[in-house]
Amino acid sequence: MTPSSFDSMTILIYDGTWYGLLCCIYDVYEYKLGPVSVSTKEQHQPDAFSNTQEVFTSAEHAKRVLKGLHTKLSPTGMAAIYSCYLSELPEMASVIIRYARLLFSSGISEKAYGNPDVLKVSQVAKMVSRERHRMKAFIRFRLTQDDIYYATIEPDFNVLPLIVSHFKNRYADQKWVIYDTKRGYGVFYDLHTTEEIQLDFTVDPDKPTDTNIFAENEEQYQTLWKDYFKHVSIDSRKNTALHVRHVPRRYWKHLTEKQV
Amino acid sequence: MSERIREKLAILADAAKYDVSCASSGSKRKNDNKGLGNTGSGICHTYTSDGRCVSLLKILLTNFCIYDCAYCVTRKSNDIQRTAFTVKEVVDLTISFYRRNYIEGLFLSSGIFKNADYTMERLVRVAKELRLEHKFNGYIHLKTIPGASDELMKEAGLYADRLSVNIEIPTESGLKLLAPDKDRKDMIKPMNFIKQEIIQNKNEIKLFKKAPLFVPAGQSSQMIIGATKETDKDIMYTANSLYKNFNLKRVYYSGYVPVSHDSRLPSFDSAVPMLRENRLYQADWLMRFYGFHVKELLNNETPHLDLDIDPKLSWALRNPNQFPIDINKADLQMILRIPGIGVQSAQKIVSARTFQRLNWENLKKLGVALNRAKYFITCNSADFERRNLSSMQIKQYILASSASKYLKSNSTQLQLF
Fold it and tell me: Does A246 touch chain B (CB under 8 A)?
């Protein structure tokens, strides 16, 4: 056993932000901590046997950690860590800390998939990447009366930050809003820049063509799309299991073609 | 306008759906004119109830046709409703669908009315209007009409991301039988023309970075499977020659869907050969990404792919002298040939083994299908398959340990107990 494993576990309490998490890594080295686990204030349940330590979020510290990670990781590896953070899976904060310590202290590479933490980071990053890709595919805009294309999403992971640039490049000449109703925030593009927004209303999902909100011909295009969807299917090849595997049921609510 | 358009869309989408290509990748058109759309690695926006990807608005410009090909639903002699879109209607549908993030772009094909040039000219006009008047940078796939002039083909290539010429039937004799008005030569000629133009365009881009793009996503083709009596060997050898001779990006295999009571064709109630189609795609992937030569997979001794096991496993069982392979030593090319290991796990294995020698547990976590792979490999473990199993025994063990998704629907064997 290494000496550090005799130390009791320290629980780091952070604010749940990306920079906050990076500051956890900073503090591990600053205070020469032994094994740590990480948790947010909301998740944390105090117990008598472990030390807790609150992490102060500082942009300066976070940037130093990022700089350090840059020297150890490829761009893909950097993106993988950020994706793991966006997964919001409770165990990932601790995995990221262990992973960073491996990189800094043992010189292990991001491709050493034999190590469980390295493998976990690559697997969760892959899961988030799949969700990101699905959102690029499954977002359905509806044209509002004030000429804004509006879409709502409820992704499993917090992938909105990962898809903004895709939509900004693609729909450069139309105003749009993508709103994550599960997390209560969205992004608005005004033909020049994107900004994060919070709305105090959401469109009734049962009225996707509400004429008080949506443009006059919006319903017509939704109908045409539904018609098209129906007619491209080949009945003699029907394969519902395959269909559902590609388009899981939890996404149907927001898909125009799946509404009757 | 709505009802009229709905009717047209229903008819012309219905008629276009037997073209299976839906790829929207391979082109890197940027949205740098502050216009609409771009192309990248391709996105499937939804999937039909038969599980096929919907990436493009796939329609015919018209289903009027002067040809009478037996396998085709829009053949002249078929008694169906005929209609045609105007150029403006197609452009409007494409733009409106694209803005709502329904699609990646347009796949436009057409029945042949009047003559090849007349039809091709209209297809090109749609693409031109989208690109020039609407600054549309999304994906455009145009079907080329055999027999159209070189000038039109060239113009099509300037606006489209992909062009395709369908070879239709894998063998020349099959084509003669089912589509007596068509000639294989008329399909080969445009393929060759597009290939030459693409090569020339690549050279131009090397010299002038701003040279206009020509068919950046390359060309593809499609064959109908099971309409004639061709073997899998016929099919894959034709596909191989298309890849080799015309640098095709993709060849699609489309299981014949009965659309006609014709004595030359399988009966109207015969099932679509979906399992066969699946095996052909697997063989196609082995050729393109796994370094297999078509002759290793299909030859005079094995003119058909096994239906009950995948073609890689089938190759491995025919070549037991190549195994077992040491996972920690063999080069990537050999690892790719192991049943149960795909391109991604092969690459992960090669990366990971530079840090530690891999054992069964590691391989499983990396995503290797051990139920198949374990008979063909050794790794960092004293535990490996020591019995001297015959190929037949291995096949039985593997079949017993896995449940094929196709078995239920295709069970023709009697249950013993």
Answer: yes
DSSP annotation of A144: B
CB contact under 8 A, B348 and A113: yes
> Is residue B302 one of the residues assigned to a domain?
no
Q: Can you give the residue range of the structural domain that contains A225?
A: 139-258
- Find the CB nearest A237 among B53, B274, B365: B274
CB B103 within 8 A of CB B57: yes
CB pairs under 8 A between A and B: 152
Question: Given CB atoms, is A79 within the 8 Å cutoff of chain B?
Answer: no
**Looking at the 3D structure of chain A, how many domains does it have?**
2
Q: Are residues B224 and B360 in the same domain?
A: no
Using omega within 30 degrees of 0 as the cis cutoff, is the peptide bond preceding B324 cis?
Answer: yes
Does the pLDDT at position B172 exceed 60?
yes
Residues of B within 8 A of A173 (CB-CB) are: 34-36, 135
Task: Report yes or no on B303 lying in a domain.
Answer: no
pLDDT at B403: 67
Residue B416 within a domain: no
**What average pLDDT does this structure show over B10-33?**
87
A150 and chain B in contact, CB less than 8 A: no
Element (H, E) at A36: strand A36-40
User: Is the Cα dihedral B232, B233, B235, B240 positive or negative?
Assistant: positive
What residue type is B184 in one-letter code? R
- pLDDT in the model for residue B410: 45
* A residues 29-48 closer than 8 Å to B (CB): none
Asked whether residue A99 falls in the same domain as residue A171, the answer is: no
* Structural domain range at position B130: 2-297
Q: Are residues A96 and A194 in the same domain?
A: no
Alpha helices in A31-143 (DSSP H): 59-72, 75-86, 92-101, 116-138
Asked if A112 reaches chain B (Cβ–Cβ under 8 Å), the answer is yes
Q: How many domains does chain B have?
A: 2
pLDDT of residue A108: 81
Q: Are residues A30 and A107 in the same domain?
A: yes
Q: pLDDT per residue over A105-134, tens digit each?
A: 887 888 888 889 999 999 999 999 999 999
